[in-house]
């Protein structure tokens, strides 16, 4: 249960970070590739953790 809570908290933190990156990308005339890559990695991490939490809640 504690691990699931920690994962949910981490997902929440990652979502906030993703919002910041989206803001940076949308406000920049030519967004940096590194920012896009960071956002892509963050999104993948969020999906992976969300699937893990979902599976633990199902079992």
Put the structure in a nutshell.
It contains 2 helices and no strands. It is an all-alpha fold and 59 residues long.
Keywords:
about 60 residues, Methane Monooxygenase Hydroxylase, Chain G, domain 1, about 0% strand, mainly alpha, 2 helices
Mean pLDDT: 96
What Rg, in angstroms, do the CA atoms define?
14 Å
Tell me, briefly, the overall form.
Answer: elongated
| Major sheet size, sense and barrel closure | none
Number of helices: 2
Alpha-beta content class? mainly alpha
Order of helices and strands: HH
CATH architecture: Up-down Bundle
Strand content: under 5%
User: How much helix is in the residues?
Assistant: over 70%
Number of domains: 1
Low-confidence stretches: none
Termini separation: 12 Å
CATH fold-level topology = Methane Monooxygenase Hydroxylase, Chain G, domain 1
**Name of the CATH class:** Mainly Alpha
By DSSP, the count of extended strands is: 0
Coiled coil: 1-52
Organism: Rissa tridactyla (Black-legged kittiwake)
Protein name: STX3 protein
Keywords: Coiled coil
Structure report:
Helices cover 88% and strands 0% of the residues. By secondary structure, the chain is mainly α. It has one domain: Up-down Bundle (Methane Monooxygenase Hydroxylase, Chain G, domain 1), CATH 1.20.58. Helix 1 packs antiparallel against helix 2. It is elongated.
């Amino acid at each position: 249960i504690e691990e699931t809570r920690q994962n949910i908290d981490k997902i929440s933190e990652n979502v906030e970070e993703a919002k910041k990156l989206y803001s940076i990308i949308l406000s920049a005339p030519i967004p940096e590739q590194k920012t896009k890559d960071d956002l892509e990695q963050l999104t993948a991490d969020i999906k992976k953790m969300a699937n893990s939490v979902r599976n633990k809640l199902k079992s």
